[in-house]
Amino acid sequence: MKVVDLHCDVLSLRQKLLVRGKDYSLLSNPYHIDLMKLKRGDYLLQCFAVFVNPHRFPDPHKTALDEIEHFQTMMKQFSDRITQVFSSRDIPDIEGQGKICALLTIEGGGDWMENPEELRRYHQIGARIMSFTWNYENRLGYPNVVPDEAEKKSQNHLEDVRGLTPLGFEFLSEMERLGIIMDVSHLSDAGFRDVCGAATRPFIATHSNARAVSGHVRNLTDDMLKAIADRGGVTGINYFPDFLDPEENLQDCHSTLEWMVRHISHIRNVAGTDVIALGSDFDGIFGDLELTDCSQLPRLADALRSHGFTSSEIEKIFHKNALRLFQEIF
Q1: Could you tell me the pTM of the whole model?
Q2: Largest Cα–Cα distance in the chain?
């Protein structure tokens, strides 16, 4: 079953390892994602997020450019195995060559971008999805969670008042003009409502689950899921234990196939199958993971079949819904 994964943190993981003086190879490594594992998992396309924690790197803009440069270097180094996608029209040709597609995305662009004109540069180098925030407020908007605030879901901060800033609205308009998909994962609830009110094109939650199943504020309410579906967007199921497992104490949460299926089933019942995609958050998550790396994705397909999902539904979830959105936007 071909896989499209809307979010991973390979680039920021490599940056952290570099700071620690450790080596990293996309070909083969001990982490969640490498080219050998992607091949075994039957991946069609992997999204690679440019992400910078502004509290750890004093110059987020430089760090973001370093990550992009490394992404481009990897594409050249392993050009016989993986190729960057600039347009959805590129995907069939790359697949026909027996190679994996790579799509560049941006997480928390408001932490280093200062004006909408900068978006043109990132669009030119292939960025096709962008979120405004990570876990800190910035010049574009406000997040829905404060990191390390507590060990219980109920004590995480939920921002229901402050949404997009005036500059954030300008960025959203320019993104739609360029063909960069707005990503609402990590955005505050108020920010989500702002996007709903201002967006004229489909938008996406690259790595968020169902809040009705697990109450973490990083997940989406039923109304949010319906809003994304109504706009023709998708949400990528996140494999992080804290977002899957409803256990209140975060240290007791587990990422299991059963919890993944429960979230997927709930979203299907609330908003339909066409809104569901995959957004692993691999190489950015930790904890007890039943799917230990990207080579394990066939196990999720088997679990969905065993719970009554049809082959057509699984194909939509695994790749067709995301591809349909890409074809509409870029």
Answers
A1: 0.96
A2: 50
